[in-house]
Amino acid sequence: MKNPFYPDERRRGITEIDPAALAARGIRGIILDVDNTLTTHDNPHPAPGVLEWLEKARGAGLRLIILSNNRPERVSPFAGMLGLAFEADGKKPLPGGFLRACAHMDLSPRETAAVGDQIFTDVIGARLAGVFCLMVDPIEPEPGWFFRLKRRLERPILRAYERRKPQ
Ligand SMILES: [Mg+2]
Predict the structure, then answer these.
(1) How far away, in angstroms, is 36 Cα from ligand 1 center?
(2) Is this prediction's pTM over 0.90?
(3) What are the two backbone dihedrals, phi and then psi, of residue 125, each rounded to the nearest 5 degrees?
(4) Which CATH number do you get for residue 61?
(5) Per-residue model confidence as pLDDT tens digits over 53-75
(6) Which structural domain range is residue 62 located in?
(7) How far apart are the CA of 132 and the centre of ligand 1, in A?
(8) Would you say 64 and 83 are in contact if contact means Cβ atoms under 8 Å apart?
């Protein structure tokens, strides 16, 4: 069984994910996190390169949907600007949001990948839902004790994950 704390793959950022390579391995849709994956927290504009990357993903025939734990007031305008469907208040790491997102794209979890920047929400949720899991580095460090705690707890897990490779 796969380790629930480990992503399938890591990238420095979303623009380093190759949509055509995902499509070639049978992935037909991607569930996208927002904060620190597509843009920084509370930023209404996508990070540099994200618009071009979304076009590349669409060009590779991939369906796309946003799944965020953030509120609809935050997620809806952002998703609307990018022309993406969305699920807000996603309650990650519970798998329900991931499964709803798959259903929305009319895909099974096996045909779906998820991209996000946090182990304790994105990675665990993707694992529980059975979708292919890509973890990206957060675009920028977050303020606040809760985020600092989560990042601190991620560090030894990611170190162990990196040591484990190559299998
Ligand atoms: Mg995030």
Answers:
(1) 5
(2) yes
(3) -60, -45
(4) 3.40.50.1000
(5) 999 999 999 999 999 999 999 99
(6) 9-141
(7) 17
(8) no
